[in-house]
Write a structure and sequence with these properties.
By secondary structure, the chain is mostly beta strands. Helices cover 2% and strands 40% of the residues. The structure holds calcium ion. Calcium ion binds next to loops.
C-alpha cells in the first residue's frame, strides 16, 4: 500500500507559552488551538504506564513498579489487585500495559504486558551493547528478561487462572525497548507491540519476534490468516516487522485500521498504519540518526520494499500511548488522534485529511505524558510519568 508520507511542510503548531508567560503560568490551565484547557489532578501513582476503562465505572491502571489498581471517582485509588505474576521492574521494564477482553463485562478477562526475568539466569550475562546506542549504552542492568503477555480473570480484587499467552523471543539482557502496548482489533484478535530490545537487527529478522507488531487470538492461539502463518514457525504471530520501540497502538474507529507509533532513535518518531506483512524499515531505514551519528538511510531514499511512515516527527516527541477521539467535549477535535509526548512534555494531537495527516499540535503540559484515553463524557484522561505520576483529567476551561 502506498501512502503519502507527510513531510515537514506541515509545520508544528506549537502552543508553547512564551518564556514570560511560562514563569507565571498556572499549572492547572494550559493553552491549545481549541482554547484554554483545565487540568484536574485525580490520583498519584508510581510510574503509571497504561490504563483501561472498566465497563461499569472507573479505570484499571498499571504502575511500572508492578502494581495494578482500580480508580474511580467515588472511591479513588484502590490497593494493588492481588494475583499478579512476578514482575521484573528495572529501567524501561516492569508492568506495562493492560487491556480488557471485548466481552470483559461477561468474562472478566484482563490482559497484561509485563517484563519477566528468565527462570535461569546466565552466570556471565552477554553484554552485546551496540555502539549505535551512543550514550545510551547501559552495562548495569544484567538481568536476562523479556516481555510477556499474560491473561487472567478478575474476581473481585484478585486475578485468578493466570496464563501466559505469548513472550518475546529470545529473552535478552538488560537495556530497554520492550514495546508493550496491547489493543484489541474489531475482529476480537489482540495486537501486541514488541520492541527491538535495543538490538537493532532482530527487527528485520525472520527468527525472532522482537521489533514486530504481533496478532494473537484472545486465548493465545495464532490466527491462521496472519500473513506468515505456517503452523509452528516463530513468525506465526507476526503482523508487521521493522519496528523499533512501539509504545502506542489504537484502532481508528472510522476505518477499523490499526495505527501504531514508535520512537525513532535520535529524531524520526513515526506514526504508521501497519498492514499485514508490511516492513516498516528499522534499523535499515529511519527518519532519524543513530545516537553515535552513524547515518541511517531516510525512508524517502530507501527501497520500495519498506513502508514509509504516515507521518514523522523531527525533532522527536518521544510518543507513548495512543487514542482516537470521538467525544463531544472537544468537538473540534472529533476524529483526531492523541498521543503522549515524553521528551516534549506534551499531549500531541494529530489531525487527518482522509487517510493523510494534515497537522500535528503540541499541547504543552510541562509533564512527561505516558498514556492517554477518552473518558465516557468526552474528557481526556492522561497518565504522567515518574514516581509521582498523576492521573489527570483535561476539560475545556470556562
Ligand atoms: Ca520506519
Amino acid at each position: 500500500m502506498i501512502r503519502t508520507t507527510t513531510t515537514l511542510a506541515f509545520a508544528l503548531i506549537s502552543t508553547m507559552a512564551t518564556a514570560q508567560q511560562h514563569s507565571g503560568r498556572d499549572e492547572n490551565r494550559v493553552l491549545s488551538s481549541a482554547g484554554p484547557i483545565q487540568i484536574e489532578e485525580l490520583a498519584t501513582l508510581e510510574f503509571p504506564w497504561g490504563m483501561e476503562a472498566l465497563p461499569e465505572s472507573g479505570l484499571l491502571i498499571t504502575e511500572k513498579v508492578g502494581a495494578l489498581r482500580r480508580w474511580s471517582e467515588a472511591d479513588g485509588l484502590s490497593d494493588p489487585i492481588s494475583g499478579l505474576p512476578e514482575i521484573e521492574y528495572q529501567g524501561q521494564g516492569g508492568l506495562l500495559d493492560v487491556a480488557l477482553h471485548p466481552d470483559f463485562a461477561e468474562n472478566g478477562l484482563v490482559y497484561l504486558y509485563y517484563v519477566m526475568a528468565a527462570e535461569d539466569q546466565p552466570e556471565e550475562p552477554a553484554l552485546d551493547n551496540d555502539p549505535r546506542l551512543g550514550p545510551f549504552v547501559n552495562t548495569e542492568d544484567r538481568v536476562l528478561k523479556g516481555g510477556v503477555v499474560w491473561r487472567a480473570r478478575l474476581d473481585g480484587d484478585t486475578l485468578v487462572e493466570g496464563k501466559e499467552l505469548w513472550r518475546q523471543e529470545p529473552f535478552s539482557v538488560g537495556l530497554g525497548q520492550f514495546g508493550g502496548r496491547l489493543v484489541f482489533r474489531d475482529d476480537g484478535t489482540l495486537i501486541i507491540t514488541s520492541g527491538d530490545r535495543q538490538r537493532f537487527e532482530p527487527a528485520q529478522s525472520y527468527e525472532t519476534n522482537l521489533g514486530k507488531i504481533l496478532r494473537i487470538n484472545d486465548d493465545g492461539s495464532i490466527p491462521e490468516d496472519n500473513p506468515y502463518w505456517t503452523a509452528g514457525s516463530p513468525l506465526d504471530a507476526v503482523w508487521s516487522l521493522g519496528h523499533r520501540n512501539p509504545l502506542g497502538a489504537a484502532i481508528r474507529p472510522e476505518t477499523g485500521e490499526l495505527y501504531t507509533h514508535e520512537m525513532g532513535p535520535l529524531y524520526g518518531d513515526e506514526l504508521n498504519v501497519p498492514v499485514p506483512s508490511g516492513n516498516y524499515g528499522w534499523p535499515e531505514v529511519s527518519n532519524g540518526e543513530n545516537y553515535n551519528r552513524q547515518p541511517i538511510a531516510h525512508h524517502e531514499t530507501a527501497l520500495e520494499r519498506f513502508e514509509r511512515p504516515l507521518f514523522y516527527w523531527r525533532p522527536a516527541v518521544s510518543p507513548s500511548g495512543l487514542m482516537f477521539y470521538n467525544g463531544d467535549m472537544f468537538a473540534d477535535w472529533k476524529g483526531n488522534a492523541f498521543l503522549g509526548g515524553l521528551s516534549v512534555q506534551a499531549l500531541v494531537r494529530v489531525s487527518f485529511d482522509g487517510e493523510n495527516v494534515s497537522g500535528s499540535e503540541q499541547i504543552n503540559l510541562y509533564r512527561r505524558v505516558r498514556d492517554v484515553m477518552q473518558a465516557d463524557d468526552g474528557a481526556i484522561l492522561i497518565l504522567t510519568d515518574y514516581e509521582d505520576g498523576k492521573l489527570l483529567r483535561l476539560t475545556p476551561a470556562e
